[in-house]
Amino acid sequence: MNASTDSAAKEAIVSVRDLHVTFTAGKKPVEAVNGVDLQVARGETVALIGESGSGKSVTLRSLLRLHPARHTRIEGRIEVAGANVLSMGSRALADYRGRVASMIFQEPLLALDPVYTVGAQIIESIRRHENISTADARKRALELFERVRIPSPERRLDAYPHEMSGGMRQRAMIALALACRPQVLLADEPTTALDATVQIQILLLLRELQRELGLAIVFVTHDMGAAVEVADRFAVMYAGRIVEEGPTREVIRNPRHPYTLALMQARADGAMEKGARLASIPGAPPDLAHLPMGCAFAERCTFAQPACLQTRPDAVELGGDHRARCLRTDATIQFGRPRMERPAIPA
Ligand SMILES: Nc1ncnc2c1ncn2[C@@H]1O[C@H](COP(=O)(O)OP(=O)(O)O)[C@@H](O)[C@H]1O
Ligand SMILES: [Mg+2]
Predict the structure, then answer these.
(1) Domains and their CATH numbers in the chain
(2) 91 C-alpha vs ligand 1 centroid, how far in Å?
């Protein structure tokens, strides 16, 4: 471990070490997460990026222990704000959820109860964790609505979720997630379902909240554009592993894992609009119930050599807090700085 990872580890509010998540309900166990290491510093936003099915949501849900204990095997270590999340009992867990770390989703109606007003839900959440009066909790709820920039906040506190627009509901869900002043916000594709204008507003809001409240954010997305907008660091995930990680600028300008490179090139060649899907990499991700012995990306990789099929590569340190799990980081170096502009339309 070099000096920079050492100091990052010291400040980390989220520290995940060698996380494995296996679902055991089916005939063959599904290895959804295969050795994830992730550190997030206080006040830092890390984007967890990858195609659908790469294990982003499973990783995020593990941080709140949301997987049903039956049929799920979780191994490794998860520390958040100094607490060992995997060893918490049910009371410690209930106290931890919402107060230390909380989560927002793509679909606000998963988080908001349709039969209560949004204000009532926020007040209830505050009072579950803190011994304060309903009037004081309502005052805090109002402040939260102002903070997430909901217009006419007083009136909207008494609205039901279905009475709000999609963007407003997203803001209300963020307010609910922040109700108990968490230090860590876990965001699972929070802008994916929104149209482009609303999406950018929510991304700006998240960035603002992160700065003002010193929140650490793990932002899960398959949208490179959204990730670039909010993240200090990129963690690129493939088949349950983080295959490349580093400061956003560094990874964008100098992608060293062939998978990241392929994602960047797919983007440079295709639509550059925000919301554009990560697409057009030939082939498909491996079956998580039958993972190959070697690098999981090898069979789609243009740089693969026989050795890539034999062992899962360890992380190679590339300098500047940038690392990639690949045997061919020497081959990708020349491909740095792919065009991020829209290609000129040929005459
Ligand atoms: N409860 C579950 N039981 C079995 N397999 C699951 C379960 N939850 C997720 N998976 C599988 O784990 C893999 C990773 O899923 P997920 O983390 O949701 O991907 P994404 O990166 O799109 O968020 C997928 O193949 C998914 O089908
Ligand atoms: Mg997901």
Answers:
(1) 7-100+182-324 (3.40.50.300), 110-181 (no CATH)
(2) 27
